Amino acid sequence: MTITTVSSREFNQDTGRAKRASLDGPVFITDRGKPAHVLLTIEEYRKLTGQPDRIADALAMPGIEDVEFDPAPLTLGLRPADFS
């Protein structure tokens, strides 16, 4: 893994370079010489945060089958159209 450091100015002038560098490792973006941000690929971010790769996995709730859910019927109060 390669760690790359770029200034905010360099990042703004050549974002593509920073994105390519993030394929090899994190890219630290500095502001006035101090690290302010980190650019990662989405895969690396998901590894760090433990996020699932698919939205279906994110929405799945283990044990949901044991939860009772009986919502009240929805009444919208619709009336027939008056064409007179």
What this model shows, in words?
- It holds the Pfam family PhdYeFM_antitox.
- Belongs to the phD/YefM antitoxin family.
- It comes from Acetobacter vaccinii.
- This is Antitoxin.
- Antitoxin component of a type II toxin-antitoxin (TA) system.
- With 84 residues, the protein is α+β, with helices and mostly antiparallel strands.
- It has a domain at 4-54: YefM-like fold, CATH 3.40.1620.10.
- It contains 4 helices and 3 strands.
- The protein has helices at residues 8-13, 15-21, 42-49, 55-59; strands at 4-7, 27-31, 34-39.
- The chain has a 3-stranded mixed β-sheet.
- The radius of gyration is 25 Å and the shape is elongated.
- The mean pLDDT is 88.
Secondary structure topology:
Blueprint: E1 4-7, H1 8-13, H2 15-21, E2 27-31, E3 34-39, H3 42-49, H4 55-59
Parallel strand pairs: 1-2
Antiparallel strand pairs: 2-3
